[in-house]
């Protein structure tokens, strides 16, 4: 029996046991209702469009989810820098999952909100509109949005949230720069420009870039945008498991710094042994200056990296939903799945890596 036949038989069997995608899409409205009922103050809703057919059926368009416990954790325990991005879903219906992430007090990724839709300017505007609504209601205003400069993000933010500061991920910029200038040592040259913290050092790096690559590379950096924007910078179940695991971990920790931050401080102390004491600086030089002055390094770590902030981030729970067979009968319309999308040519067997 051919291997492809076995996979087809497996797909049919799994569909008979778990139900097909059509059945899952039809229950999205009920899912949002029950999620908000089980997790009070959470935001969950989906949108649809009416098909131009005699029966006027409703077809799924997008879904937006924000768990209350996750969002409160963002506001109370995370810094104001959040990253937005999206990745393409696989399968018959494809689509794009847009999401917002932040970094908690232990330097771990903290998933906040997710939405499924096509990635275009209209969907980004819709996404940022609801993100701005739930963020600004808290009264906190020190937010900064970081992105990979994907098409549609900047114009959508300028239209929906023009006052929020924006930053760009230098890793994605480096990839674009190397594709534009495929010359040896371009990686090192790029980071020499983006990693500077003083105007004099920046001018020195730009001069070196001009000498090595040419005027075109200097213009490429100018076209990115303002310098201040450069930075080097099954969802429900995954969020539940990660949130619960880190919540238990936070209860075992005493006051002070989080483990990853304490480890980083110890590494800086080791690196500073070969340095001289300078009155000012960063990294191992600044650490050596603190030790030379007889200061305790942990007293100079930002409060956002404390165990108290970590506990505030994971304070609260995401409650599970009942099995689909136990859902109450709700008088909500049933949605059709989005149209099936198939790419031209044979499907790729190799994973695309950056």
Sequence-ordered SSE layout with sheet pairings:
Elements: H1 3-18, H2 21-26, H3 28-38, E1 43-50, E2 58-66, H4 68-77, E3 81-88, E4 96-103, E5 109-117, H5 121-136, E6 144-147, H6 153-160, E7 166-169, H7 170-180, H8 186-194, H9 199-212, H10 215-224, E8 230-231, H11 235-251, H12 259-271, H13 283-292, H14 307-313, E9 335-336
Describe the model:
With 354 residues, the chain is α/β, with parallel strands linked by helices. Helix content is 45%, strand content 15%. Strands 1, 2, 3, 4, 5, 6, 7, 8 and 9 form a nine-stranded mixed β-sheet that branches. Helix 7 packs across helix 8 (186-194) and helix 12 packs across helix 13. The chain is globular. It starts with a helix and ends in an 18-residue tail after the last strand. The mean pLDDT is 80.
Poorly predicted runs of 5 or more residues: none
Structural class designation: alpha/beta
| Global shape | globular
- Share of helical residues: 40-55%
Element pattern in H and E = HHHEEHEEEHEHEHHHHEHHHHE
How many domains, in number, for the residues? 3
| Total E-strand runs | 9
Q: How many H/I helices? A: 14
- Mean pLDDT metric: 80
The main pleated sheet reads as: 9 strands, mixed
Strand percent estimate: 15-25%
* Distance linking N and C termini: 37 Å
Compute the CA-based radius of gyration. 25 Å
């Amino acid at each position: 029996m051919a291997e492809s036949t076995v996979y087809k038989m497996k797909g049919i069997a799994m569909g008979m046991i778990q139900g097909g995608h059509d059945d899952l899409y039809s229950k999205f409205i009920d899912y949002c209702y029950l999620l908000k009922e089980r997790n009070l103050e959470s935001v969950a809703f989906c949108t649809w469009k009416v098909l131009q057919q005699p029966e006027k059926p409703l077809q799924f368009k997008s879904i937006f989810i924000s768990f209350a416990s996750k969002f409160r954790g963002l506001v109370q325990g995370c810094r104001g820098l959040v990253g937005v991005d999206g990745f393409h879903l696989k399968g018959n219906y494809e689509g794009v999952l847009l999401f917002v992430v932040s970094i908690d007090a232990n330097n771990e990724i903290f998933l906040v909100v997710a939405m499924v839709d096509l990635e275009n300017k209209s969907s980004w505007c819709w996404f940022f509109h609801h993100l701005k609504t739930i963020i600004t209601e808290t009264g906190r205003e020190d937010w900064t949005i970081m992105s990979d400069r994907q098409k549609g993000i900047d114009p959508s933010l300028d239209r929906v949230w023009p006052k929020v500061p924006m930053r760009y991920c230098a890793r994605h910029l480096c990839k674009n720069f190397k594709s534009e200038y495929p010359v040896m040592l371009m990686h090192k040259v790029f980071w020499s420009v983006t990693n500077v913290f003083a105007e004099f050092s920046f001018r020195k790096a730009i001069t070196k870039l001009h000498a090595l690559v040419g005027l075109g590379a200097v213009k490429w950096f100018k076209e990115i945008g303002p310098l201040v924007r450069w930075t080097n910078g099954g969802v429900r179940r995954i969020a539940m498991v990660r949130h619960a695991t880190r919540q238990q971990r936070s209860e075992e920790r005493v006051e002070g710094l989080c483990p990853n931050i304490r480890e980083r401080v110890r590494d800086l102390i080791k690196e500073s042994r070969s340095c001289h004491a300078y009155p000012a600086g960063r990294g191992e030089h600044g650490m050596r200056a603190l030790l030379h002055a007889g200061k305790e390094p942990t007293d100079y770590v930002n409060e956002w990296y404390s165990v108290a902030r970590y506990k505030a981030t994971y304070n609260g729970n995401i409650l599970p939903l009942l099995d689909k067979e136990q859902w109450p009968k709700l008088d909500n319309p049933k949605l059709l799945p989005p149209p099936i999308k198939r790419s031209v040519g044979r499907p790729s067997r190799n994973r695309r890596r950056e």
